[in-house]
Amino acid sequence: MNETFRMLATVLCTLLLAGSATANQIRIKDLVEFDGVRGNDLLGYGLVVGLNGSGDGLRNAPFTEEIMSNTLERLGVNVSGEQFRPKNVAAVLVTAALPPFARAGGRIDVTVSAIGDAKSLLGGTLVMTPLNAADGRIYAVAQGTVIAGGAAAQGDAGGVVQGVPTAGVIPAGARVEREIEFDFTSLTSLRLALREPDFTTAARIERAINRDFGRGVSVMLDAGTVHLDIAATQSRSPAHALGRVENILVQPERKARVVVDQRSGTIVMGDDVRISRVAVSQGNLTIRIQERPLAVQPNPFSDGRTVVVPRTDAEIIEEEGVGLAEVPEGASLSEVVAGLNALGVAPRDMIDILKSIKAAGALHAEFLVR
């Protein structure tokens, strides 16, 4: 019975160690971009109609009137010399990303943003809008009902706005009309571009690919590039080779980094952050100034007047500190957090402490302030 229990415990420990060893492993497809396998940005200028009185004021946005006139004239409606001031129309910019290998007839999502003084795009419909790429050619056409990302209400004495009602999306709102010419099947080699260049990660990707194929099919060129010899993989096609490569697991190596957002007081620290032995103390100093003017009145029935005499109370209050807290040599992330929490400081005070530790040369990480 005891022997069975020991065997079971050994198996469980082995599984736990194996799980912890592979917990930080990431697929190559999540670490790199394949050279040539990329999307393209599209842009269009269109019109949203059907708004409930929240469209552009045509006196302030004359381009809305111009595009509306052009649209109606293409439909056979002559509006030359006419004066119209509808409030349910808004001029918008339409953006989208054409994914790699998109085929004609496929659908892609689009984002619609007002460029005039429209109050809201809620409930509007985007009229047929061509989407152009950087080469000026039309690759997709967008049309559909806009799903706005907010709401707005206005009254005589004020209003309220939640979210961004002047921007929205149309899921699958554009149809691909033209394919990007790219002969993927003729590739004999390909470059893998790391999203975060690092020599250690690139070397690990090289070893992982060669180990998976059992031969030398890849080589690291620099910190951000790994060359893949597709012909040496002996795969049926480049697509089969990449389908195998992108699912290989690799443990990436990242720089130790501390990211601070001063506006929201957010602090994010990576697991590799280390701090040398340092002592930290934190306290608050408050200066309080209070004005209490005193009115001095003359005696009754005297020929005098009331005078206001200024009186100021000023004091400096220094709150009792928590003493010095020592962070040991080579402290890990959890030890750093525990040490800072032991001081009982607020997140914004913690930002100042981290800045001071970095200035003292004890914080061994890249310190980014946003």
From TrEMBL:
Coiled coil: none annotated. It is found in: Bacterial flagellum basal body. GO terms for molecular function: structural molecule activity. Its main location: other. Residues 1-23 form the signal peptide. Keywords: Bacterial flagellum, Cell projection, Cilium, Flagellum, Periplasm, Signal. It comes from the Bacteria. Assembles around the rod to form the L-ring and probably protects the motor/basal body from shearing forces during rotation. Belongs to the FlgI family. This is Flagellar P-ring protein. It comes from Salinihabitans flavidus.
